[in-house]
Amino acid sequence: MSADTRVAVVSGGAAGIGNSIAIRLAQDGFKVAILTRTPGAAEDAALQIEEHGGVARGYQADVSDRQQVDSVLARIREELGTLSVIVANAAVAPKKPFLETSVEDWENTLRINLTGTFNLVQSGITDLLDQNYGRVILISSSSAQRGAPDMAAYASSKGGQLAFTKALAMEFSRQGITVNTVVPSSIDTPSVAKKRASGQMPSVEQMSKFIPVGRMGRGEDIAGAVSYLASDDASFVTGQTLSVNGGSFIG
Hints:
- By secondary structure, this protein is an alpha/beta fold.
- Helices cover 46% and strands 16% of the residues.
- It has a 7-stranded parallel beta sheet, sandwiched between helices.
- α3 runs parallel beside α4 and α4 (103-131) packs parallel to α6 (152-172).
- It is globular and about 45 Å long.
């Protein structure tokens, strides 16, 4: 099965890391379905891919809502075909001291980041099982590896993804499905740029001093890792955590 007959779905694929992943998979020949809960954003991102020769469609859906996920995946199957690659990237990253974190804050973060991952993967993996082939790729965070002050809910949700990866890899490896996680850190995305502009984060130059390779990462760096894991070259790689962080966390 060649890449140009396969369909990849990317949640949170309209901006930042997710958009870089969607663009790269389209360049690799996949038909790409972009999901986001922001009205019109996924459609705009898909149009940009198609203007550069790729095949993409945009869909509005909140991954924390299982009914929406089931409905949108049914549309994707009708319009693009059976899923082969699932990239769970959609997430929120609230920053608040632990003692100020409400139960609502906690539950909302886990509902989007972890339950949203569950919803997307469980709803889509039946396609992969029917083909006896597929790739599930989660996008976690280094906060799950080394902790993060004022981000207990976010780090916990991302740590849950790491455990989820291992469990699914063990359960589905005999069915031709690999399950892996890419863990970014120090990636210069538009959301990071906004935080930097508002004084919530140090400058690129300051951050780069603490990264062994001497620069911040780009969305394309994460997209390259996803491209590999989505390929046939990665058929013997499952249950793994691939840290893409310029050496800022080694473990």
